[in-house]
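Supplementary Methods S3. Complex input for the adenosine-5'-diphosphate-bound model.
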Amino acid sequence: MLREILKEKERIVIKIGSSSLTHKETGDINYQKLEQLVRVLSDLKSRGKEIVLVSSGAQAVGRQELRMKAMPNEMPKKQALAAIGQAKLMMAYQKLFSEYGQVCAQVLLTKHTMVKEESRVNAMNTFHELLNMGVIPIVNENDTVATHEIEFGDNDHLSAFVLAMIDAELLIILSDIDGFYTDDPSSNPDAELIEYVEEINDEHFIMGKDTSSSSVGTGGMNAKIDAGRIATQYGAEMVLVNGRDVNVLYDVVDGKNVGTYFKANKRENFSLAEYL
Ligand code: ADP
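Predicted complex, serialized as structure tokens:
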């Protein structure tokens, strides 16, 4: 069994995309979903796993707070919505996690944090301390200060960088699709699900389009494959699954055959700086 190894993984980064956290019809945040996610994560934590959550959804919550119908295109407006929504989203997470006896913490990062060694080490120390304290860090890009030049741009890349920074063993990406296909299933009905990727290569980048089928997704599949390249070359395993039902997280850590499993391919002399 290829996936037996996943059972042993203890330090796990879980990334959830906006499309898995919002209602398709309105783009508003799906609080039932949020609650289910928190319940499963608390449970995994109780099983002895160390969990770091990378969560999108701040802009969606901000837009909902202001009762704006559509997402604005202007960057400052989006950043303002993220500022409103991030605080509100964390309030929801803290309330829900405390119901399950867990403490969570907010960590906002920019690409600068990673590029500059001093701040990268500081952030790393904070993560280690939080995990030692038994806290669940909830990470997002610091949208209010990130300009185009210094942004990760999508939380897929951010989650892979976080994984390498904290020496995690497994990256789980929850998306709005069952896994990685031979082509984008939204435009190619003949696309087939790939259950196992031994090593990410150029062909996978051609299969994974950068289009996003939802209005709220940012990275598209290409960003996920690139995040997978970073995570697997760092030496971690990655599983891409559908976040429609967050109970799928149990299946992933139990080594069951769900979504697409990207095998770790540790690169000697891995240096995070090369991927920034
Ligand atoms: P999320 O919001 O979960 O991060 P995205 O919308 O960014 O999700 O990316 C997922 C989407 O990527 C899918 O819904 C699908 O339409 C698209 N996609 C492009 N190429 C592929 C592929 N090869 N396999 C699966 N999905 C693909």
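The radius of gyration is 17 Å. Residues 2-275 form a domain with the Carbamate kinase fold (CATH 3.40.1160.10).
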